[in-house]
């Protein structure tokens, strides 16, 4: 079984979409391993998005993710990383298919409702930012 990291971003929490997003993941057969509601510190946000440091959008990304509560979670299932990414839809909501989270709920690329690890390696880096007690699997 593969584990992945995903998170409802502040805009998703503001729009009361956390329950709907969790339902979509669980309905797809993914098992919820860990979940919480938190407000990220500047330091945790910088740790989460450290791979983007130096990119033009980095400061905007960090500022947005600390602007309100988020719902980080760990999901488990066959091919979990790719399945979560398919459920989320394209990063740019204008390119996201209807029926995906971003296709149904997001309006702009900078506030696109959810974050999801893009690989097992990314998930293994992101999970401990929020859940130090979770055992990582390859």
TrEMBL record:
Name the UniProt key words of this record, in alphabetical order.
Answer: ATP-binding, Cytoplasm, Kinase, Magnesium, Metal-binding, Nucleotide metabolism, Nucleotide-binding, Phosphoprotein, Transferase
Is ATP-binding there in the keyword field?
yes
Annotated binding of ATP, by residue: 9, 57, 85, 91, 102, 112
Q: What is its EC number?
A: 2.7.4.6
Q: Which SUPFAM superfamilies match?
A: Nucleoside diphosphate kinase, NDK
InterPro entries xref list: NDK-like_dom (IPR034907), NDK-like_dom_sf (IPR036850), Nucleoside_diP_kinase (IPR001564)
Single GO MF annotation = nucleoside diphosphate kinase activity
Q: Which reactions does this protein catalyse?
A: a ribonucleoside 5'-diphosphate + ATP = a ribonucleoside 5'-triphosphate + ADP; a 2'-deoxyribonucleoside 5'-diphosphate + ATP = a 2'-deoxyribonucleoside 5'-triphosphate + ADP
Q: SMART domains attached here? A: NDK (SM00562)
The coenzyme or cofactor needed here is: Mg(2+)
Gene Ontology BP annotations? CTP biosynthetic process; GTP biosynthetic process; UTP biosynthetic process
Where located? Cytoplasm
Domain Nucleoside diphosphate kinase-like, by residue range, is 1-138
Give the active-site positions.
Answer: 115 (pros-phosphohistidine intermediate)
Top-tier EC class: transferase
Cellular component, GO, one term: cytoplasm
Entry similarity comment: Belongs to the NDK family.
Main function:
Major role in the synthesis of nucleoside triphosphates other than ATP. The ATP gamma phosphate is transferred to the NDP beta phosphate via a ping-pong mechanism, using a phosphorylated active-site intermediate.
What protein name does the entry list?
Nucleoside diphosphate kinase
Q: Report the source organism.
A: Candidatus Aquicultor secundus
């Amino acid at each position: 079984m593969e584990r992945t990291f995903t998170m409802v971003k502040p805009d998703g929490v503001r729009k009361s979409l956390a329950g709907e997003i969790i339902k979509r993941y669980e309905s797809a057969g993914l098992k919820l391993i860990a979940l919480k509601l938190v407000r990220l510190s500047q330091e945790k946000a910088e740790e989460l998005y450290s791979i983007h440091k130096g990119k033009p959008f980095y400061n905007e990304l960090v500022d947005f993710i600390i602007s309100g509560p988020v719902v980080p979670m760990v999901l488990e299932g066959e091919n979990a990383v790719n399945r979560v990414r398919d459920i989320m839809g394209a990063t740019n909501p204008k390119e996201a298919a209807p029926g995906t989270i971003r296709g149904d709920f997001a309006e702009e690329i900078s506030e696109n409702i959810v974050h999801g690890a893009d690989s097992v390696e990314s998930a293994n880096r992101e999970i401990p930012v929020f859940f130090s007690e979770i055992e990582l699997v390859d």
